[in-house]
Amino acid sequence: MSSVIPFPSAAQAFGETFSSVTLRAGSIEAERRGITRDQITIAMEQNRQLVTYFLGLLGSANEQDRQGGALGLTRLLGVTGGAA
Predict the structure, then answer these.
(1) Who contacts 56 (Cβ-Cβ below 8 Å, separation ≥6)?
(2) Is the sign of the CA dihedral 60, 15, 23, 80 positive or negative?
(3) Other beta carbons less than 10 A from residue 41's beta carbon
(4) What is the number of other CB atoms lying within 10 angstroms of the CB of residue 50?
(5) CB of 82 within 8 A of CB of 39?
(6) Alpha carbon distance 74, 34 (integer Å)
(7) How many Å apart are CA 46 and CA 25, to the nearest integer?
(8) pLDDT at 78
């Protein structure tokens, strides 16, 4: 299962810890890129850890991380049937 979260309002995925602010920014960035909340919810039901990781990347200040998060989330949505 997951490790202990070092501070409240955070999520951990694949060894990375993302604050709720970063995840919220990732959700907003996903919507800006045309990915709906419904699509994210469908994907979360299939693989919460992977979606959390990609949203964390999308909420990053680093442009390369954001691009990787967008690509990963878009591909995951294609696999789970929630294609963007």
Answers:
(1) 11, 13, 16, 18, 22, 23, 26, 69
(2) positive
(3) 11
(4) 17
(5) yes
(6) 10
(7) 22
(8) 83
And the tokens for 34? Answer: 């045309």
Q: Give pLDDT, residue 7.
A: 52
Q: What is the pLDDT along the chain (84 residues), one digit of tens a residue?
A: 445 555 568 777 887 888 888 999 999 999 999 999 999 998 888 888 999 999 999 999 999 999 999 999 999 888 665 555
What are the extents of the domains in the chain?
12-80
pTM of this prediction? 0.80
Q: What is the 3-state secondary structure (H, E, C) of 9-73?
A: CEEEECCEEEEHHHHHHHHHHHHHCCCCHHHHHHHHHHCHHHHHHHHHHHCCCCHHHHHHHHHHH
